[in-house]
Amino acid sequence: MDLTCFYDLKDNMCDQVDIFEEILEVNQRFKDSIIKKDWDSINKSIDELNELSVDVHRLDSERVNYLIEVANELHSKESENFYTLIKKAPHDIRDELVKSYYKLKSSVIRVQGVYKGLNEFIEYKKDISKEIIDVLMSDAKGNVYTKPGRRGNDSPGFLIDRQL
Question: Can you tell me the distance from the alpha carbon of 122 to that of 124, in angstroms, rounded to the nearest whole number?
Fold first, then answer.
C-alpha cells in the first residue's frame, strides 16, 4: 500500500493548523489596532486576513482531494467520513493522522471563538460610538460619520410622473 496520500493528508492538516495559528496572531494585531484607532494597521490586518483566508480555502480544497485519494487507496467510498477512513488506515500512520486531525479541529474552534469575540468587541465599540454621536449631535437625524467625513442616509425614493 502506498502511504504517500496519507502523509500528504497529514502534512496538509499541519499546514492548516499553522495558518490558523497565524490567523490568531493577525486577529490580535487587528484588535490592538482597533483599540489604538490605527487605520493603516487595521487595513493591513484586513489585507493579511484576506490573504490567509485564500490560503485556508486552497488547503481545504487540497485536503478534500487528499481524502479522496485516501478513500481510493483504501478501496472505500469517497463519501465516508474522515474518522471512518482513518480507522481503516495502516497502523503506521493512523496515530499521526488522528493527532493532526484533532489539532486541526482544535485550531478551527479557537479561530471561531476569536472571531466571535472580535465581532462582539467591534459591535460593542460601534454601539457605544453611535450612542456618543447621537448624544453629542442630536440634530444629526441619522447621519453617519466616518473617517473620510459625513455621509447622510439614503434619501427616500420618489415617484416620477412621466405622463407630463
Answer: 5
- Is 66 exposed, middle or buried, given 0-12, 13-18 or 19+ CB atoms closer than 10 A? buried
Residues in the chain predicted with pLDDT less than 50, given as ranges, are 150, 154-164
Query: CA 97 from chain center: how many Å?
Result: 24
Q: What is the pLDDT of residue 20?
A: 95
Q: Return d(Cα 49, Cα 96) in angstroms, integer.
A: 29
Q: Which three cell numbers stand for residue 71?
A: 478513500
In this predicted structure, what is the pLDDT of residue 87? 85
In angstroms, what CA-CA distances link 99 with 10, 83, 90? 9, 12, 15
**Distance of alpha carbon 6 from alpha carbon 4, whole angstroms:** 5
Residues 6+ apart with CB under 8 A from 150: 143, 144
- The one-letter code for the residue type at 30 is F
Alpha carbons 66 and 20: distance in angstroms, whole number: 19
Question: Rounded to two decimals, what is the model's pTM?
Answer: 0.72
CB 70 within 8 A of CB 9: yes
